Amino acid sequence: MPGRYRYSRWDGSQRGFEFDADDLLGELTDDLIEHGDVSAAMRRLMNDGLRDRNGEQLAGLRELLDRLRKARQERLDRYDLGGVYDEIARELDDIVDEERHAIDNSLSEARAAAERTGDSRRADIAADSAAERMLRLDLLPEDLAGKVNGLQQYDFTSPQAEGRFEALMDRLRQQLANQMFEQVAGSMQQMTPESIARMKDMLADLNEMLERRQRGEDPGFEEFMAKHGDFFPENPKDLDELLETMARRMAAMQAMLNSMTPEQRAQLQQLSEQLLGDMDLQWQMEQLGSNLRSMMPQMGWGSSYEFGGDDPLGMGEAVETMAELGDLAQLEGLMRGVTSPTALAEADMDKVRNLLGDDAARSLDKLSKLSRQLAEAGLIEQTEQGLRLTPHGMRTIGSNALRDLFSNLTKDQIGQHQVPQTGMGHERSGESKPYEYGDPFRLDLQRTIRNALVRRGQEGRAAGLPVRLQPDDFEIEETEHLSRASTVLMLDLSMSMPMEGRFVPAKKVAMALHSLISTQFPRDYLGVVVFSETARVIRPQQIPEASWDYVYGTNMHHGFTLARNLLGRQHGTKQIIMVTDGEPTAHITPDGDVFFRYPPVAETVEATLREVVRCTRAGIRINTFMLGTSQSLKGFVERITEINRGRAFFTTPENLGDYVLVDFIANRRQQSSRRRAS
Prior knowledge:
This protein has about 675 residues and is an alpha/beta fold. Strand 10 and strand 11 form a beta hairpin.
């Protein structure tokens, strides 16, 4: 059954105009034309971003890096790292206050009981005990580690205060352990001596596994996970993923320590020793940290940050924030060092989404697929020298250039290229004509039968079979002879071309001519000669890679010589199209040396004009497109035109392409017209 389609009004939410490979190459066209380096053009596109057909802006790396810096600064301006201690200190103070309140209540109850029983000794004992406990609380050290150690040795009066203290200690132990294992708190509800012993065994096995890998042995990852997998509910697929997760946490903890004052750092380290209280466990943790530092130095172990906000961070929040800052630093390093879009695929898009938002993740994901998108479309390929345009990419670039150049022409101008004359030959023109005596009998059967049916109707007879033909019904196909044209494009690569903004339009013309000839006139020949201090021949496929030469000199003499040699091996109509912006300032001497002088001297001008004479004698027409307007330049080009009988155009970079292509197509059809007439 035929497909059925439903249409609805566009409300702005639908998508369907995503950027495709041709659009992407269109964005790169001018850059490729100017520099000829696919990799460099891709890097510039990655940096600048682009807008898709939905009108949606795809953020480039420059914008994403700016967002990243702002995200980091927002965290630094918001938080206060001193909150790591404030939270613990406030809770310890609350526990001590609760214990003091319990002591007071206990003393009041003892005194009340003594009054009822008349036992004053009981009241005195209670008072002495309460005074002793209050004194011990008064003498608790001010630093956290000392206060924790004092309370660990203290016999609480209040069961509630004691429970809160044990819960706090357990939570802090879990937070300290979380510097390595993100899910320890979930897998170990209480940091009991047994659980600490299990953690110590796991760390020992992990360090042993790393040592086996460093010796080149099988580390035994599967056996390790079978024994200790409950420590890692995220279920890492291999040892590298496991180590990266652990290194991220430990590096975040180290960054937090680095960001503290020496006094804060000493307090946290002492607190860690008090809480874990197992020398072997601490040694295993230090050993693991050392191994991870040597294996993953890129994790930013030496990073430190200056917080200037007022929002206090608890220890768990501080580690998480440090981990986020570390991820931002890693992402920044990746984006700054990227040389090709494929390298961006290494970014964890989930982390990018959490750190910078959905738009940034979507932009980075699309940027990472740019080169793959072009490669899958057959527009570029990876070679030993880097990314290169494929032949299909070359044709597409040429088509883009052709489209851009013809987009400025009006319908009336394009209409001027039509040639009304018809003739005989071997190539169909798409037109037909009534048969005349002497024409080749290439019958257009469809039109001939139609003519017979129309005639029959005009005669008042009913249509039917058989259809009877008469000589006046015959209509034949028009044909045209093919005339082969040979063209050499001479393109000026001297320094003045880019300095005046003339190089890109001129090169765009070269690529457009190549596209035009290869697609519409495939039997024609196109040669390319580029010239500056000297001239050289390049293949048309090399046009995108051609760039201006960092030398002085405009050696038309050498360019005409090479162009004449190229055309000497061709047949048919021959022409040179020269695009330049200056007079000749260099030529090749009889000894083969390069002579350069600016301003131009008579010797160089005469050598160039002698080569123009040789081209003229060889039947080569020279059409010159000058991008300069000086009087001396105009005079020189007029001398070329006088000798060669070619044409000269004084134009600007903006309309250069229109003149060249209109003139080329006009010449091409004039040649066909002359062949028909003959």
